[in-house]
């Protein structure tokens, strides 16, 4: 019987879902006040209402949502969001816990889901201490014959949720939770025919397997023994239930497909986590392979409906579609269920292919597998319709950026994981199938969609084979490569001609409906596109067997472009009703995808200007209708197209700049397209003649400055961030670099700088995300970056006068950190490229000189009101000012104060990238004059408020400097830091030597042996560090940097190539190792041990052999320069005992001494 209180609560709950906003707000306030005053009684009433099945389902669901909020606030201080002061009393807590367990039997799945959440939430603080019977109660409900199916479903779902959030390793093993779950699931499966319950059981087992695999199994023999037994039991459960479903009838019921898929998922989880069990049991794996193969054969029936009909036709195929959807068993769309099942089973093939070799299958099973892959590679009607409506969908799908389940991705991964023999077998089979299908189509002389789709599917499978990273040893007696390549080319040409002729035929055909006509046009486009994409993959795969493959590639691409553009003109002239909106976008975008693949094995500069012009026509025709993923494809292709001949592309107009801007400004907040657009602009401007550069500036700079101007005109209350303005500054920065300077951002690409001369070699496309090995001598943009041999770029005065006032005003008016970052980069480039113009500049309206404005801008950046994140480029700005304006009297006057302000800003900075930027200033100063820099930092003091006294700037800055080096990224920054540290060490300044900084971490000391410090406890203990002299720390950092720079993925093979084995043998002899070990050098190096300082000096003196130990800089790649610099420094230190190196060496760890021995002495 409802109480007065419960009626009041129900009325409040109804009021909260009222359309009347005032009533809703009033009821929420009253509701919150009631619960705050007496949470025990109020929560009791809520649960009591929820227990009553006669109450409105919406009200019961609302109560469970309120519990989600109220439990953390009033249940226990164990919740971080506990509010109090009143809490739910113990009697009510017990009532709520038992009531919730009762509610997991509710027929409504949404009620059960809400109850599960509440139980898991409470169990997080109550289990096991206050709720010790929780798991036992759940097991009992799940396995009891008296429990309803709803109760079993709720219990199983609850156990699943508890595994994700609650069960610990100790409970899993030592408290027998895993054992109880396995036995309970086994018992339930043996006496239950309810498919929904079985699905829930296997989902629970998947969670259990995941928990077992993430546990520390090897911590005890008992755990190892349990795992061995448990895996066998779990495999037995899965295979027993799988065999019970091995009949054709399962294909007629969605629920059976879903159950079988869940069992397979459970097996896949077992295989992924404990694959050694399967690899040692070939009978089991062969059985599993045959199960999958058989099921995939049966599923071709429903999948064929998806190929030929709309997806809703599939609903009529299954006998239980309506019931399945009503029961809401997971994802209830039949097409999703089928495609997901097939995709996961193909992934099962991928897992099993390491054990079950495809080539060893019997002939029938081999053919069955190949034919099933053809069927499942066919595009569904829905997917093809999406492509027809919008070619952007095709690009997303083809490049692997589509978020939907994609069967082709699974098939690609399967084929890519096969070994060479398996791939060759597939290549033979599908090449024969392709030619047979083409012949059948020509003989029938019919527009059968099935033929087009099958040919396109076979083409995709050949694409997979050609994309395989396995080397190819094709027997040309079985597959004549020249002949098959010509077949592909002829197929493209014949199908383009057929597509062009089909327009008139379709217009005159009154017997075919428009949908079928559109599908026919689409199918032909897709087939042509597939063949176009295959060609570069074929040439790349078999380049060793095709002596003139590059010439073939260029000629073929040229012909495809000419024919495709002719086809496009034909469509435009005939004003086709079919594909009018797409403008052959599928074919055109496939050409761009294909072109990115050509660049895997052919330098961009190898292509002709005609190809360059035609590709630009393709891009221009797509630009107005392209979207996100297509825009990225266009920019990726454009960066290669530009590099064919960027001087030719820039000598007459700025059309490519307009194209880049057009794409980028579609969505200026898209970081990915912005980065690609910037790279395109850099490639376009790099190394072009100055006249070409100013042609590009005419549009490029004017367009972005207009956007800046527009922002300045609206600057009454300062300038706010907009994506358009930030992108404009980004493009302006590229222009300000000029035509012959390397972008400083390239210097921050860590270890990629040495690859700049190869930057468009293998310009990888996103499709299917597989890596590719590239020839080292291939380069699309082979500009060389020979910066030092060129005249420094100076912007002309007109451009300077156009840009400088606007950038200066923008910096002074905006407070946005992102805009300040970008604008400071622009300003820095003006300092570098227009030094004289700034010195002579005078603003007529304010009477300020260029130097006045410079100081004003520096002052703004140093203001405490400017956030750290605005200063990421400020270090470069200060360095440029020092370098270019050191002779200006006004700058000289204020420079000491500026440097002191920079020091203070560095000390107060929290953002690591800001610290790195400001450290650049001291790196440059130290390289220029190390003693003056140390004197400067020593000569002024900083207030340390918390210490109530002053400290020298040196004593504060140097520890920050050292810490920053340990996490610094970017080759140029690291190299300059290395040079600066070397100069500081060589000073042997006592003030540096006496300064103590953090050394190595001190191991955690357990003072109480009765307490075991767990990993989680250790994470909470503050790390303590040794205190060591700064000079010792500098040497340690430089040793670790040398070790890092010298490390390679395959250390042994690299050492074998670089190690001077004679030195190793001599060193071993000198250390008294006269054993008769092998003389290959490896054991000898190990036996050297840790040499004393005197022995190190001997080694270094012997290895020097009269060579100059100075760095010969520009003759070396960047990484080589840093390695050489460090090696020479350590040699010099050892020979001359620079900085009292002997004492420092004796304080190094043995591992650090070994690094010096191996990398400084015994490598070339």
TrEMBL record:
Keywords: Nucleus, Transport
PANTHER family reported in the protein's UniProt record: IMPORTIN-7, 8, 11, IMPORTIN-9
Compositionally skewed regions (Basic and acidic residues) per UniProt: 760-784
Region forming the signal peptide: none
GO biological process, one term: protein import into nucleus
Name of the featured protein: Unnamed protein product
Domain Importin N-terminal: 27-106
GO cellular component: cytosol; nuclear envelope
UniProt biased composition (Acidic residues): 745-759
Main subcellular location of this protein, as a coarse class: nucleus
InterPro entries: ARM-like, ARM-type_fold, Importin-beta_N
Gene3D superfamilies, alphabetized: Leucine-rich Repeat Variant
GO molecular function: small GTPase binding
UniProt subcellular location: Nucleus
Region ranges (Disordered): 741-784
Organism: Candida boidinii
